[in-house]
């Protein structure tokens, strides 16, 4: 059958086709524009983080040099506080970069030790003890490594000035960080990671002392080794997904060996001994907040208790980039065990668990033999300053130093200016072991 198309219909068809072609060209042009814009923004974001990281490392190097020549506890304390702040800022810059846990762990550890080692020297000087030649040797070596790291970060920044590399970097980010060969930053940090493997072993009274890294994780101690298949089932439960949705992402070879898996934009690590969740990390951007921080903390607590079957007490939280990170401590028979810490990050747009950090819990969690307090809570409260108004009291196990736990009464108090204060009184000696000031901000609560 022969179909005759009128001239008017033909004109309409041609006009429609032309409109479609124009629309497709416009869409393609817009896509190229946004791709170029995204690439430029990504480049600026990473370049700024790299530049700031280098500057902080230079500042750390300079401050360490000043500490070599300081002679008074007051000045050493001031320099230690400055160094601690600079190391924290450097860690924030490092966290921005798409660096694997294997490559960043050594750098994070180095930055943590720099700040905490300096604070330990400040406490030593304040107690009337002399800074030894060995202490100064450690400062010199830390100073050397800070400079070496800064040089390597500068080299990385120069490397990434090549625009062609940024195209690969975008492909790496878009792919969900599944192909490290695409990432110039990943490859560069692999070299940097080797720099921090030989800096001095530091033994001191602090939370990042090397003897802690050599400690045996209590949670995995004497636990059976699980298979990757078993770990996959545990990971699926934590991520609330099917096992088929998980992809293998290698292994973590550390003091807490773990199987790694990815599911869309999240990575999870399950310990090879005992099958505990070591961490969950997410690359998702949370653009809005529709639930409250209180709801997020409640969601995180329910999630933890459901996944572990254990009791936890919430302490404080912080909000950053529309993710509420809540801190929890394990409770044994009503006693809060602050060594067994877990952080849970909840997205404020939909309540999804975005992050979980349980290394402290994995390292320290065990069933403890808790002694009965020698003194009553009333006796402990009686020694508090009259400037304080007690709101509540409870039993808590705290770290007196990096290796010793002390059973205390934890008092939540109000100061004369309505500030929130925590006071810890030893249940046996009735000595005040610690005082914390709670700093409440728009983003949450910090301790000081």
In whole angstroms, the N-to-C terminal distance is: 88 Å
Structural class determined from secondary elements: alpha+beta
Q: Into which percentage range does the β-strand content fall?
A: 15-25%
Point out poorly predicted stretches.
198-214
Helix tally?
11
**Which shape, going by the Cα principal axes?**
globular
Number of strands: 13
| Helix fraction by DSSP (H/I, runs of at least 4) | 40-55%
Task: Give an account of the 3D structure.
With 448 residues, the chain is α+β, with helices and mostly antiparallel strands. Helices cover 46% and strands 23% of the residues. The chain is built from eleven helices and 13 strands. It has helices spanning 7-69, 73-96, 101-126, 133-159, 163-174, 184-195, 210-213, 228-239, 293-308, 359-364, 377-382, and strands at 247-252, 258-263, 266-271, 277-282, 312-320, 323-332, 335-347, 353-357, 389-399, 405-414, 420-426, 432-441, 444-447. Strands 1, 2, 3, 4, 5, 6, 7, 8, 9, 10, 11, 12 and 13 form a 13-stranded mixed sheet that branches. The longest helix has 63 residues, at 7-69. The chain starts with 6 loop residues before the first helix and ends with a strand. The model is unreliable at 198-214 (pLDDT under 50).
Indicate the topology.
Elements: H1 7-69, H2 73-96, H3 101-126, H4 133-159, H5 163-174, H6 184-195, H7 210-213, H8 228-239, E1 247-252, E2 258-263, E3 266-271, E4 277-282, H9 293-308, E5 312-320, E6 323-332, E7 335-347, E8 353-357, H10 359-364, H11 377-382, E9 389-399, E10 405-414, E11 420-426, E12 432-441, E13 444-447
Parallel strand pairs: 7-9
Antiparallel strand pairs: 1-2, 2-3, 3-4, 4-8, 5-6, 6-7, 7-8, 9-10, 10-11, 11-12, 12-13
Helix pairs in contact: 1-2, 1-4, 2-3, 3-6, 4-6
């Amino acid at each position: 059958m022969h179909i005759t198309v009128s001239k008017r219909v033909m004109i309409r068809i041609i006009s429609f086709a032309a409109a479609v072609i124009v629309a497709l060209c416009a869409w393609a042009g817009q896509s190229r524009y946004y791709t170029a814009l995204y690439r430029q923004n990504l480049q600026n974001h990473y370049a700024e983080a790299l530049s700031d990281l280098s500057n902080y490392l230079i500042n750390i190097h300079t401050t360490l040099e000043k500490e070599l020549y300081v002679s008074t506890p007051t000045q050493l304390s001031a320099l230690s506080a400055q160094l601690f702040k600079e190391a924290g800022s450097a860690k924030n810059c490092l966290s921005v970069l798409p660096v694997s846990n294997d490559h960043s762990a050594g750098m994070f550890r180095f930055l943590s030790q720099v700040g905490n080692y300096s604070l330990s020297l400040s406490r030593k000087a304040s107690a009337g003890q002399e800074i030894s030649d060995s202490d100064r040797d450690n400062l010199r070596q830390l100073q050397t490594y800070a400079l070496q790291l800064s040089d390597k970060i500068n080299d990385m920044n120069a490397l990434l000035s090549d625009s062609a590399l940024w195209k690969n970097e975008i492909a790496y980010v878009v792919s969900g960080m599944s192909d490290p060969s695409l990432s110039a930053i990943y490859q560069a940090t692999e070299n940097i990671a080797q720099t921090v493997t030989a800096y001095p072993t530091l033994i001191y009274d602090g939370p990042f002392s090397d003897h802690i890294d050599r400690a045996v994780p209590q949670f995995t101690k004497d636990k059976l080794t699980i298979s990757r298949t078993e770990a996959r089932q545990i990971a699926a439960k934590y991520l609330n997904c099917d096992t088929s949705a998980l992809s293998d992402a290698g292994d973590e070879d550390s003091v807490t060996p773990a199987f790694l898996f990815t599911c869309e934009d999240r990575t999870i690590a399950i310990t090879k001994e005992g099958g505990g969740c070591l961490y969950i990390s997410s690359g998702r951007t949370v653009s809005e907040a529709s639930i409250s921080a209180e709801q997020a903390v409640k969601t995180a607590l329910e999630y933890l208790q459901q996944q572990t079957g254990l009791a936890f007490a919430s302490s404080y939280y912080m909000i950053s980039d529309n993710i509420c990170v809540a801190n929890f401590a394990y409770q044994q028979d009503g006693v809060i065990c602050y060594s067994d810490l877990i952080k849970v990050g909840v997205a404020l747009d939909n309540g999804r668990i975005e992050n979980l950090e349980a290394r402290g819990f994995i390292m320290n969690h065990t069933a403890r033999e808790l002694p009965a307090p020698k003194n009553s809570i009333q006796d402990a409260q009686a020694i508090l300053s009259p400037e304080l108004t007690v709101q509540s009291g409870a039993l808590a196990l705290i770290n007196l130093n990096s290796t010793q736990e002390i059973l205390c009464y934890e008092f939540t108090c109000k100061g004369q200016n309505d500030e929130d204060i925590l006071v810890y009184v030893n249940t046996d000696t009735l000595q005040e072991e610690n005082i914390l000031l709670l700093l409440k901000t728009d983003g949450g609560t910090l301790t000081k």
